Each structure stands twice: as structure tokens, then as C-alpha cells.
Amino acid sequence: MKRIIFQVVGLLIFVLFLSDTLLAIPAFARKYNMSCTTCHAPAPRLKAYGDEFAGNGFVLSDKTNPRYYVNTGDDDLFLIRDLPLAVRLDGLVTYNHNNSDKSDFNAPYNLKLLSGGEIAPDIAYYFYFFFSERGHVAGIEDAFLMFNNLFGTELDLYIGQFQVSDPLFKRELRLTFDDYDIYKTKVGASRINLAYDRGIMLTYGFDTGTDIIVEVLNGTGIGGADVLKNFDYDKHKNFAGRISQDIGDYFRIGGFGYYGKEDLEQGGDYFTNEVWYAGGDLTLSIDDLFELNAQFLLRKDSQPVSKILYSNAENIETKGMFAELIYTPDGDKSKWYAAALYNWQDSDYAHLNISKATGHIGWVLRRNIRLFTEITYDLENEFGQVGIGFVTAF
Fold first, then answer.
1. DSSP designation for 178
2. In 3D, which of 8, 193, 185 has the Cα closest to residue 93?
């Protein structure tokens, strides 16, 4: 225990030193000369204004930046004067992570280079490159072009790589080290989950507070191309859709569906798996003090493994949910915050079962630097893990 305490104190000293030296701000705040609290509370969690900013092609509708482009004398050429770049660096110390009975310095845990912005009126881009993710070069994850307000309407088009679950709850914007597990789950040999994929996404928002999202996807994740230089490994395309409705100023409900097929190979056996998801979600926000997010999903796989190799191969059902509660006592000006997360999953394949609870407390040293401590208890496997770390963006 003494060794663990010394490690934690050492990390705190290291992070306190960082807080006095990393004074730069991320790319979007730098562009508009504004505080991170305009969009985040705390970073990377988005406020409603930040969500609107992202959905508007990373442009503030009520603020302009006339020197954003170089004046080339060509009305059809838009060149960004200064390429917007930002860095995110995360690290932590853990004890008994994944029931390892070890203390470990996970620093850096993530190191990203991010860039995004408007490249022409109503056309924007966004991507980030993982220099290091858990000690490996992970490469590009989010990477897309966005066409905003197509045909003079509220229709937006995204094309590239993104998370299928982004219209629900964005994993990259969560405050906890622990994740939204049901979005990441793959069943058997299936390549399908609700994390990263390639495709297109169409979004449309109505004045009534109704939002509709449709996605057309490869259904193969974001692995490398095959020998024919195709990213999709089969002839199928998968489809996802969501509809959500604001009810008053504080409440939102949504429904989600997904359907797709995939051709799989396992142990020399070739077969087709049919996958569908159905579920609902809700968000309750109370005066910038409390936010409750909840998601439930049912997934069914017709045949995710080989019938030659496994007796239980057909009609596999997996249910999952998470509930997240966030408390910010002073809204976007909060110097500390608290979060709780519960993940539950039940599957016909017992090794996919999950039940765990997380408590998280964070301190905002600077708007773009925060410390946190987090405790997770795995009720399914009966062990606990502890972490203390930092998240920086500059």
C-alpha cells in the first residue's frame, strides 16, 4: 500500500506541474478566442451549445472569424490560414485493473493529434490520429467530411469513419475511464458492434425538437483493406437509424434500430450472420446541475459462430444497458464534478455477461486540464479496481 500511495502522490505532483506549464488551448477555442467552457462542462463533455457547434460544421453561427481563410483572389478556393491542431494527452495510475492484482503507471494512456474545422462554406472535416493508445500506435479512428445544410435545409451528411453509436451517446466525450460496454460488444466471430465503422450518416433536425439520423455502413469496423483493396469484406451493407424527441427543456427520449448481415469464416466453415439491434435511450438534464443518461439495447445474432465447432451457434441474444449520472455543482464553472456509471449486460454466451459500477470524482485545475480519481467494482467477477489520472487538451 505504501508503494501505491507513493505512486499516486508522484502522479499528482507531475500533473500539478503540468497545470502550470500547459497554458495553450485547443484548436476551436483558439480559432474563436474563447474559453473551453463555451462548449464543454467539463471537457470533453459537450454542452448543448457545443453540440450545436459540432452539428453546424464547427462554426459558431453568432460569431465570425474573417481572417480564417487566406485571401487568394480565387472565389472558388478556400485555404485555411492556420491549420487547426490540438493535442490530447491522458494518463493514470491504476491498481488491480482487470483483476491483475498489480499497480501500474498507464501514462501516457492516450496521446492524440486532433484537427477539424470548416474547409469551405458548409463543408467541414474532423479527424484524430492516435500516436499512442495503451502503448501502441492505433492510427486513425474518427475521420470524416461533413456537408452541412444540404439544399438549404437542415440536412447534414457525414462520410468517412465514425462511431455508429455517436448519434446516441459519444464514447469519446465521456468523463469516466470506464466505458459504455454495450457499444463495444462483439458476439462470437462477428465483426459488428456499435463502435467504429465506415459509411455515411444523414442527420435532420426539425424545429419541433425531433432529430432523425440514418446510417449506411460497411459493417466490418475500420480494419485494413482486403487483397482487392476493398474495406468491406462482403457484399452486404448494414443500416442504422435513430429518432429522438426533446420534451420540454430538460428531457429527451430516443429510439434506435440496426439491421445488417455479414459473411464470416471460422475454422474453415463459411456462414452468414444476420444481426439486429433495437433499443431506447433517454437524457434528463436539470439546470446544468445533474444529467442522467441511460441506454438499453437488445442484440440478436442468427449465427455468430460455426455450427461445426459450436453446438450453441444460432439465435444468440445479448441484452445490455448503461446508466450515467453527472453532477456539476456550478454548471460549466464547476471546479469539481462527480459522475457515476453502471454497466450491465446479459448474453446467451455467459462470458459476455457484465455487471459493474463506477464512481468518479474530478477536479478542474485549468479549463483544459483535469484530474480524476475513479473506483470500479465488478459485481460479475467480484473484484474492484482503482485509478487516479489526468486528461489534458492543448
1. S
2. 8
Q: Cell for 201?
A: 450518416
| Partners of 386 in the β-ladder | 95, 375
What's the whole-model pTM score? 0.85
Q: Name beta bridge partners: 273.
A: 262
| 221 neighbors 164 (Cβ within 8 angstroms) | no
pLDDT tens per residue, range 115-168: 988 898 899 999 999 988 888 888 899 999 999 999 999 999 999 999 999 999
Cα-based distances in Å from 184 to 2, 197, 320: 36, 12, 11
Q: Closest by alpha carbon to 61, among 118, 112, 16?
A: 118
Query: CA nearest 202: which of 171, 162, 232, 252?
Result: 162
Of 41-45, 244-248, 335-339, least confident by mean pLDDT is 41-45
**Which residue in 90, 128, 95, 81 sits closest to 111, CA to CA?**
90
- For 223-261, the pLDDT digits (tens) are 999 888 999 999 999 999 999 999 998 999 999 999 999
- Residue 18 backbone zone (phi > 0: left; psi -120 to 50: alpha; other: beta): alpha
* Cell numbers standing for residue 189: 466471430
The helix or strand, by DSSP H or E, that contains position 244, with its residue range, turns out to be strand 238-247
CA 232 to chain centre: 23
Amino acid at site 381: N
Tens digits of per-residue pLDDT, 90-127?
999 999 999 999 999 988 999 999 998 889 889 999 99
